[in-house]
Amino acid sequence: MSDAIKIYFKDIKKIPLLSAEDEIELANRIRCGDQKAKDKMIRSNLRLVINFAKRYRNFDIPLMDLIEEGNMGLMKAVLKFNPKKGYRFSTYASWWIRQYINRALANQGKIIRLPVYMVEKILKYKKTTDELAYKLGRKPLKSEIAKKMKVTVGKLQEIDSVITKITSLEAPIGENQTGQMGDLIEDESAASADSQLSDFMAKEKIDELLSKMSPREREIIELRFGLKNDDKYTLEYIAKKFKLTRERVRQIEESALKKLKKIVKKEERAVKA
């Protein structure tokens, strides 16, 4: 680690953290165009970016580059944060910071030419496989991995297909061929409250997306994909519940998923903006 980075880290540690009340006050001032409030919110959360950037070890992208990308995500979060949603700023900012860092990994990794969402899926696949192998003492079955990831075996095969076409999980990546796809997995020793915040934010993000659906669309999606209690229900069950035909439920589900995809694509464009 260079002296410049050490000095940067040392300076940031001197910046006091914000209380929940501070965040609300600053957020309200930011919405009114207060530049000083915006600067203070950013400065007070720079260490959050560092925590995320440092989790990605042994990858051929300079740490400061990852921090710069994460800072862009932080600035985006500062502009979009709404304290009325009920969660802390670090919870909301974590999602944006991860988006920008993952995009940097995808765009600058030379070999990894994947959408951010697919990079996330591959990371989760690799991590889940390793965890199950350690727990079971053997190579896990596809069905076991799928159950742990809460996806279908078919979806897992899609991820497998992408990995096969792009690169092996252990293939060297990066300009100097010093990293591996597996190196993208977060360093468990660095995981702290921030990782819990990120998990919470993932649920908050799903809730935010579903809030844009009609009540019936939302409930059907929640039942079909086990978003309420992890139990996934059949079209027949949902059809009886809503007193609809099986085909009508399928049509509503398909329409709702198309809406969600449009919303996600819109947000992806916002990230690039």
Highlighted features:
single chain; 273 residues; mainly alpha; Four Helix Bundle (Hemerythrin (Met), subunit A); Arc Repressor Mutant, subunit A; two-stranded antiparallel ribbon; 13 helices; globular
Summarize the structure.
By secondary structure, the chain is an all-alpha fold. It is built from 13 helices and 2 strands, in the order αααααααααββαααα. Residues 167-198 have low confidence and may be disordered.
Could you please describe the fold and organization of this structure?
The two termini are 32 Å apart. The chain has helices spanning 3-13, 20-31, 35-43, 46-53, 63-80, 89-108, 116-136, 142-149, 153-166, 193-210, 215-225, 235-242, 246-272; strands at 172-173, 179-180. The chain is an all-alpha fold and 273 residues long. Strands 1-2 form a two-stranded antiparallel sheet. It is built from 13 helices and two strands. Residues 167-198 have low confidence and may be disordered. Strand 1 and strand 2 form a beta hairpin. 68% of the residues lie in helices and 1% in strands. Among the domains are: 3-112, Four Helix Bundle (Hemerythrin (Met), subunit A); 215-264, Arc Repressor Mutant, subunit A (Orthogonal Bundle). The radius of gyration is 21 Å and the shape is globular. One of its GO terms (molecular function) is sigma factor activity. Residues 65-78 form the RNA polymerase sigma-70 domain. Keywords: DNA-binding, Sigma factor, Transcription, Transcription regulation.
